[in-house]
Amino acid sequence: MHALDNVIWQALTTRQTEFAEIVGRARRFVPEVTSLTAFAEPNEEGYASLGGLVGAGGKAAVFLDHPYRERAGWSVVGGAPLLEMVCDNGTAVPANPACSLPQITELGPQDSPEMVKLAALTKPGPFGSRTHELGTYLGIRSDGALVAMAGERLKVPGYTEVSAVCTHPEHTGKGYAQVLMKELMRRIRSRGETPFLHVREDNVRAVQIYERLGFQVRVLLHYVLLRRD
């Protein structure tokens, strides 16, 4: 089994167990951290455990290897095909000349309200009031306001996910996302780990940017947000 197979489950059973809530064969992150949820296998036992974990009316955001098939007791709220991309090429991201870099700020608990607000505006994926606890989060400010950010989310042995890459619509086209990603990737590699990420398959512009940074598609996944009836 590859370290990135069933990656949410692997994160919650290896490097991020401190964030896990557990019922049977299902696990989820503490809801304030993120809505991501997983089971050991997408079978009857897995879905039964998932139902016990989220409760009646509860929601679960899962990654599946195959398109979701209708299942009694569950309703689909949303979802999309996702590309899982990995940057194995350690030389793919040259350092930016210092003179060309905007000032990068390390974000923390005091920045959480602004981070949640920016994520709600730009919709990079599930983001909660405690998501910043998952790893390093970096931001760029303009006139004091947070206008771009990126950070670390899922962590499994040997790999760290780059996530929440977003820029305020009034500040796109300035290269902020690439600057933040390059710095995160540099830090991840300095720990001897490999960066990876998830992106909607239909987000062609983002996919092209990630490919220029050295990321390559590893597998197609299916993100599904389910509600327990």
Précis, in short:
The protein contains five helices and eleven strands; from the N terminus they run αβββαβββαβββαβαβ.
Number of domains: 2
The string of secondary-structure elements, in order, is: HEEEHEEEHEEEHEHE
Mean pLDDT, to the nearest integer, reads 94
Tell me the span between the first and last alpha carbons. 33 Å
| Portion in beta strands | 25-35%
Low-confidence stretches: none
Radius of gyration: 18 Å
For the record, the CATH architecture of the largest domain stands as 3-Layer(aba) Sandwich
Q: How many strand units?
A: 11
Keywords:
229 residues, alpha+beta, Aminopeptidase, 8-stranded mixed sheet, 5 helices, 11 strands, 35% strand
Notes on the structure:
It is a single chain. By secondary structure, the protein is of the alpha+beta class. It has 2 domains: 7-83 and 224-228, Gcn5-related N-acetyltransferase (GNAT) (Aminopeptidase); 85-220, Aminopeptidase, CATH 3.40.630. 23% of the residues lie in helices and 35% in strands. It contains 5 helices and 11 strands; from the N terminus they run αβββαβββαβββαβαβ. It has an 8-stranded mixed beta sheet with strand order 4-11-5-10-9-8-7-6. A 3-stranded antiparallel beta sheet has the order 1-2-3. The longest helix has 15 residues, at 176-190. The protein is globular.
Helix-strand layout with pairing:
Layout: H1 7-13, E1 20-23, E2 26-29, E3 37-39, H2 44-54, E4 59-64, E5 74-86, E6 105-107, H3 112-122, E7 137-142, E8 145-156, E9 159-167, H4 176-190, E10 194-200, H5 204-212, E11 216-228
Parallel strand pairs: 9-10
Antiparallel strand pairs: 1-2, 2-3, 4-11, 5-10, 5-11, 6-7, 7-8, 8-9
